[in-house]
């Protein structure tokens, strides 16, 4: 909204009387002198700029303000011009205004920061380097913190190699200081020169062996090789046994290295000195679950709930899992119910609670759980709708399952998850026209959806229909996900339908290697049977049925070949 015209003159005087931040208060004579210096032309241009800005015409306002700054050389107008032009994304005009601002107010930290930011954003790296060198030269005893500011100053610069060159140049006189090497390490990391970054941070640690920020930065560089990060932290802690941040980092990195027992020991040691630290309590609880120490896990997670701090949703969720595994189903449902909608685990908690109710034959209560969850958390609506349809399918209520998905599709007709899941559910009732229509729509919406191509191709191959088309669809899926075991299974089954049993066996064995799924085993056994390797077929089926005694597709295959 624009200012009323009668207040614009007042706003102008106020705007011109302000520096970047609070300044020394001026006497009445000074303010009068400033007011009397306003000319009609300046006032007119200011009015134009303010009215344009108030109407959201930032481009016009920026141009008017920069013109005004250029003609008056007034740092207060230049400051306003810098702000408006920056917000209008007119970076070169903003830079011009920032230069005027710096000329008029050379001691202003805000003016310097604005100029540096704009020089970086507009790739004026030589000028920026020169100004940074000047700033560092007059930093005196504050040189260390100033060197560490380089990373933030240059953060928006897109040419990361240019940033590295600037940092190398401006830090050259200060290589006896650890902060200079830290700045170089940060620039090298952004430029994706990891070996250089490691070398620089090691230099920083040689100069300042107890510097926690440096070892923590080194750990970031080594996260892809967590055992090396562990080794670096252990060495640092041996030299600096009081370093709490390094000890916490070690406990976390041991998790990344999958050294769970050592990690739990590290977190437990930290917990001894910080008995009510919610992060440490939670970590010990989860690691105890990972290690199968359910008693300790439960006690730690319950302690977290008693404190009322930390990740309460996580504590309820994992305590629900513990209760579920202990077949304390009512308790588990109650715990899952206490996971709030803001949690990333909300949908999973609702799904587990519904599954437990369904296991007790309380299907409608389970559905109510999921529907209430969808109302409480719109972001999880699709996930919970799919969960309800699968719950109904498990109860052999396939038409109800499809109806649930159809209602959701009516509200979200192009949702990829709903299209795919409803197509798969249609297959259960042999509604192949619906399956094909929805998968084709999904492929049109998402041409790179590997599983949509695969599902349609497999449906055709399994029914021995339009095998050329089926092959093109499965080949497309395989090109998108060449190591997906279920797509490999589809190609194997297609080859079998085309009478190419030897090729079928190759695809199916690759699929079994990646995922020993019972339905893949059913297909492989059938191919081996046709190849007259019947003992091998029976062995494949027997191993699969032993591991998956309730799989219906495998059971149906065995029944066909036992006649």
UniProtKB/TrEMBL annotation:
It comes from the Bacteria. SMART domains: TPR. Residues 1-22 form the signal peptide. Keywords: Signal, TPR repeat. The keyword Signal applies. InterPro entries: TPR-like_helical_dom_sf (IPR011990), TPR_rpt (IPR019734). This is Tetratricopeptide repeat protein. It comes from Denitratisoma oestradiolicum.
């Amino acid at each position: 909204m624009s200012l009323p015209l009668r207040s614009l003159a007042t706003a102008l005087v106020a705007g011109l009387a302000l520096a970047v931040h609070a300044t020394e208060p001026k006497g009445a004579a000074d303010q009068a002198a400033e007011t009397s210096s306003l000319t009609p032309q300046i006032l007119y241009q200011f009015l134009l700029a303010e009215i344009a800005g108030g109407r959201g015409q930032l481009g016009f306002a920026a141009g008017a303000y920069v013109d005004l700054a250029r003609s008056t050389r007034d740092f207060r107008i230049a400051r306003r011009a810098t702000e408006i032009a920056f917000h209008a994304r007119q970076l070169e005009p903003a830079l011009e205004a920032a230069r005027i601002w710096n000329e008029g107010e050379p001691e202003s930290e805000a003016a310097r920061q604005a100029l540096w930011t704009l020089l970086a954003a507009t790739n004026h790296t030589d000028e920026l380097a020169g100004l940074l060198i000047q700033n560092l030269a007059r930093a005196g005893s504050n040189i260390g913190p100033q060197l560490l500011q380089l990373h933030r100053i240059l953060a928006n610069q897109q040419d990361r190699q240019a940033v590295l060159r600037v940092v190398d140049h401006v830090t050259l006189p200060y290589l006896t200081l650890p902060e200079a090497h830290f700045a170089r390490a940060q620039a090298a990391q952004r430029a994706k020169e990891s070996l250089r970054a490691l070398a620089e941070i090691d230099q920083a640690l040689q100069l300042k062996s107890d510097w926690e920020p440096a070892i923590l930065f080194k750990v970031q560089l080594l996260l892809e090789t967590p055992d090396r990060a562990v080794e670096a932290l252990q060495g640092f802690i041996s030299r600096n046994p009081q370093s709490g941040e390094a000890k916490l980092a070690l406990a976390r990195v041991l998790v990344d290295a999958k050294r769970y027992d050592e990690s739990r020991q590290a977190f437990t040691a930290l917990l001894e000195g910080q008995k009510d630290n919610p992060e440490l309590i939670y970590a010990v609880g989860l690691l105890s679950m990972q290690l199968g120490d359910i008693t300790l896990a439960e006690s730690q997670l319950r302690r977290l709930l008693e404190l009322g701090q930390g990740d309460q949703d996580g504590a309820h969720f994992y305590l629900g899992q513990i209760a579920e595994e202990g077949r304390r189903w009512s308790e588990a449902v109650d715990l899952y119910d206490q996971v709030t909608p803001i949690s990333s685990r909300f949908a999973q908690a609702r799904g587990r609670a519904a599954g437990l109710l369904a296991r007790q034959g309380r299907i409608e209560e389970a559905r109510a759980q999921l529907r209430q969850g969808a109302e409480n958390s719109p972001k999880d609506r699709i996930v919970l709708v799919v969960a309800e349809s699968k719950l109904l399918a498990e109860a052999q209520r396939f038409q109800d399952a499809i109806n649930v998905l159809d209602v959701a599709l009516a509200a979200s007709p192009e949702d990829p998850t709903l299209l795919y899941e409803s197509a798969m559910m249609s297959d259960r009732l042999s509604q192949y026209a619906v399956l094909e229509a929805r998968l084709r729509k999904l492929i049109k919406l998402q041409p790179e959806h590997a599983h949509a191509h695969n599902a349609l191709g497999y449906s055709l191959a399994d029914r021995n229909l339009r095998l050329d088309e089926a092959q093109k669809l499965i080949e497309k899926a395989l090109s998108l996900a060449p190591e997906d075991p279920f797509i490999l299974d589809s190609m194997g089954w297609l080859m079998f339908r085309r009478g190419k049993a030897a090729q079928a066996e190759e695809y199916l064995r690759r699929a079994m290697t990646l995922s020993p799924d019972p339905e893949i085993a059913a297909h492989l056994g059938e191919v081996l049977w046709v190849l007259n390797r019947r003992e091998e077929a029976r062995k494949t089926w027997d191993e699969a049925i032993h591991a998956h005694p309730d799989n219906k597709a495998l059971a149906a295959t065995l029944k066909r070949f036992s006649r």
